[in-house]
Structures are given as C-alpha cells and as structure tokens.
Amino acid sequence: MCPPADDKSKGANGPDDTLAPDFDLLAQNMGRLMEEAGKVTAAYLKPIERGEAKTGAADEASEMVKTIGRVAERWISDPRKIIEAQASLTSDFMNLWSSTLKRAGGEEAPAVAEPDKRDARFADPDWSAHPMFDFIKQAYLIGSRWAESMVDKAEDLDPHTREKARFYVKQIASALSPSNFVATNPELLRETLRQNGENLVRGMKMLAEDIEAGKGELKIRQSDAHAFEVGVNIATTPGKVIFRNEIIELIQYAPSTETVFKRPLLIVPPWINKFYILDLNADKSFIRWCVAQGLTVFCISWVNPDERHAAKDFESYMREGIFAALDAIEQATGEKRVTTIGYCVGGTLLGVALAYMAATKDKRIESATFFTTQVDFSKAGELSVFVDEEQIKSVEEQMAQRGYLDGSRMAGAFNMLRPNDLIWSYAINNYLKGKVPTAFDLLYWNADSTRMPAANHSFYLRSCYLENRLSKGEMRIGGKALDLKQVTIPIYNLAAKEDHIAPAQSVFLGSQRFGGPVEYVMAGSGHIAGVINPPAKMKYQYWAGGSLTGSFEDWGKGASEHPGSWWPHWVEWIKAQAPKQVPAREPGSGKLAALEDAPGSYVRIKV
C-alpha cells in the first residue's frame, strides 16, 4: 500500500508514515461498522417479514444463468476450442507475470493490458505506479476481456442470445472490478487508513438508508435528494394546470413575449420518466426557451400510475392523453390546429396517434417533432436485451400482482446499460468513501422514477420491441390498421449520435417510414444531453441536410455539421410553417380556468 504518486513524503520502499492509522479509533469504527451492518440486514429483511418484498430479482438471476449457460454449451461442444481459449488466457497471464517480475527487478516493462482512456475506474496514479495494484488491474482487464471474447467467438449463437450474454458479462465484469473493493483499490485503502475507517461507517449508514428507501432493494442515490424540490428550484417555468383527468394534467405555460405564434405547441413527454427533464432549471429548460421564442407551450404531465390504472393501455394513453390535450387546447385558445413534440416513448405514442389520425382523417396536428424516438424497432437499442417472450412473460406476471411495473425496475434497467458510470461509481463514492453525492438536477430527475400500468407496458413491449408492428403496418388501435406512410405532415426527427436507448440508425430507419417530408437531424452526445442542449452553452454539435433515400451511412456523408445546439435550427423550422402571430395568451384566460400552478400535482407523486 502506498499514498498518491505525487506525495513527496513517500519513502522509496514503503508507505508514508502519516498514513499509519489510530488503531484504537480504527477498532472503535469497526465496531460501529458492524452495528450499521446490522441495520442494513434489518432494512433488507423488513419487507420480507411484512410480505412486501418486491418480486423479479430471482427471475432476472435465472435469466442470466440460462443465457451464459447457452454460451458455455457452444464451447463445451468443441473441446479443441476450449483448449485454445484456455491457452490464450494462460499466455496473457504468463506475460503479465513476466512483466511484473521485470518491474519488481527495476526494469521497464510494457503493460500487457491497458484500460480504455475514458475508464475513470483506474485514474488514480497508484493503479500504474504501484506494482501490486498494477498487477491486479491488468489481471482484471485480461480476465474480463477474455470473458467478453468467449461470448463474441461462441459459434451458432442466435443474435439476441449473444447480445444478452454480452450484457450479462458486462454486468458481472463491472461488479467484480477491483476498484469496487477497499483491499484492492489504492485510493479507497488510503482513504480508509486516513479516516480510521470512518468512511466505511458513514457508507454503511447510507447503505441501510438506501435499502430502506428501496423497500428492501438497493436504491443507490445519485444526487443529494434534499437539494431539490419540484416547483421550487426545479420545474419552475411559470404556468398553470388547465385540465386534469385520470392519467394527465395539462400545463399551459405563461407567455414571456407580447405576441405569440398563433399555432400552439403540445409536448408529449415519456411516461417512464417525469416531464421536467424539459424544465430542469432556468438555464437548461427547453420549455422556458420555447416560451421565450414566442410559442404558446402546453405540456402533458402523466400521472404516476397505481393499481387503479392497470387497464389503461396504449389506446387509453392516446385518447385520454394526446386527444384529451388537443380538446383542452382548443378550449383554452380557440385553436383547432397544433404542432407537437414527442420525446422517447412519448414520441412512439405520438407516432401511433398520428397514424390513427391519418386513418380517421383527423387533421388537428399539423406538424410533429420527435426527440430520440423509435417507431421502427428493427434495430432497437440496448434495452432490447430485456425483451423476448420469456422475459416479457415474467414482467407480465409481476405486473399482474399489482397492476403496474414498479418504477425501480425500469430505472434499474437504464442504470445497467452503463453500470460503471451509473451504478458502481456511486456505490464506491457513497458506501466506501462515505461521501454524500453532490447536488445534480439531472440525476435527481433520473432517480425520480415512475410506475408503468400493466396493460400499457405489456402492449409497448410486445407490439413495439418484440413484434415491431407499427413499422410493419400490422398495429391496430381502436379497430383501425395503422400505416405510417399515411402520415404526410412535416416531421422533424431528432436523433442523438451516442444514444444507446434509441440509436441514431434506428431513428433514421423510422424517418423512412413516414409518408411526408422528414427533416432528420442528429445531435451530438446521448439520449438526454443531446436533447437538453441550450444554445447559450455552445456544447456539442448537430448534423443536418443528408438524404433519407439511401442508408444511414449515405445520409452521414451528405449531412453538414453545425456547431452548438440544434434548438435554433428547429425553431426556425417551426416558424416557417406557421409564422402568423397573435396577442399573448395567459393560462386560464380561455374557456378553461386554471386549476393550480405549474408544475401541478401529478408530477409530485412519488414511487
């Protein structure tokens, strides 16, 4: 064990004497640590004793074992390939051992395995400077990469099983990283000695609190939960709730300009998260920015459903969500024609609604914008690893017990897509370093999860992810066959280059399914940061202008790159369609009286 490489007081052959712990205090803290560990056990057992334990974890573990077992079967069937794979692993470890012996003898030796430059787990200098930790790091990298290669090289494995196996191997490798344990992480070891174990006591206390907050399951805090309050310092754009039914509140935002564009804007956010991702704070708020551009903005705030909403399906969300909002907007403003935005699954619902409206000759929506939305799921993102007949049946059985899918399930799935960043980095910070996470509005929103009604979620998983019915023209809603080619209104389809949930190529394919003019634009960054990118920040870039007639790669060759946010490009697209302006409209001044101040009540319902 040694201190940081830049610690000038470090001796040549050993650790700094100042790191010697107070053994009496260390012993006391170890006793306190055991007490806190007992509270962790109690927090875990309490829901089980009450019969309130959440189900599903055993099914997920079983699915992982079965999937990795299928990979193992492919290797067992060919002993020669097993011997070759073992020889490759043995060779790498022999090279590592040789390199380590050379370093111990004072010789220079190149690394056998180097972490990715973006891998923050091994950023501490001692991971490379200290031979022991360098050996541990490289051994881990060799082993984890070998396991990944075993999945990639397994023969006669169907693509879905291979993707699931890659996903599960990534989860196991992330969990077993030496950076996750005090004894094998130089930074944690230093901190523990310096604090005489106090960091571990604080961490165990937070672990108990987080298991209790998760009602028997670990709900890792990613932000300081006490730093934000919806309607106080987050989701603060002024407005009023002007309509409410069982599944939505409709917010009309107060104007900030003397005149506004005649055609209103309706935003349909995803119901798997809360709408205020579009209204985090004054600097980041897309909604506030739209209001400042002279748009009359309406936004749906979905209810956080419970057992009463179990039968609410996709058609219910279309009729009681989008269509109810269109009716309310007409009452509030007198306008029968609107433009719309759909974000993620809210965009998928909007696509379904547009196809239904085309089939019924309903022309109330004049143009539509999609944010990182899939309507063609043939090349769906990483979430598709959770979707096959067996897994959907398991989810449906869970939902049948309560009438909904618990929000923690979906939140956990999203976090598992980036385990090192969204799970283990916080586990280390919170439970091993004993630090409270910093206040970060985006991660506060990420943790503010919602439930999914059973009928709605089952339809989405089966008809979209599993069977891809919408893009094939096989989906039926309200007795109508849906055909996206009949949707001929102007479309602005925004993808994000690094999106792992709605990949840019998948969004591109969706653009080709519509029957009218489509402006396909690709923003830099990912599913959230690519969308929430205010112009004043001058971050990232966007690409526009390529042809939709060829492949995604062909589009990229013809597209032009532009620095900064895509927001101004989009609003010019909106203004060009309907430039007429009228005096600003105050919420509640029409036929619908204001019910309460924005952001309303539904958004405050917790899981």
TrEMBL record:
Residues 294-529 form the AB hydrolase-1 domain. GO terms for biological process: poly-hydroxybutyrate biosynthetic process. GO terms for cellular component: cytoplasm. Keywords: Acyltransferase, Cytoplasm, Transferase. Its main location: cytoplasm. Residues 1-10 have a biased composition (Basic and acidic residues). Coiled coil: none annotated. Residues 1-22 are annotated as: Disordered. It is found in: Cytoplasm. Pfam families: Abhydrolase_1, PhaC_N. Residues 118-290 form the Poly-beta-hydroxybutyrate polymerase N-terminal domain. This is Class I poly(R)-hydroxyalkanoic acid synthase. It comes from Bosea caraganae. The gene is phaC.
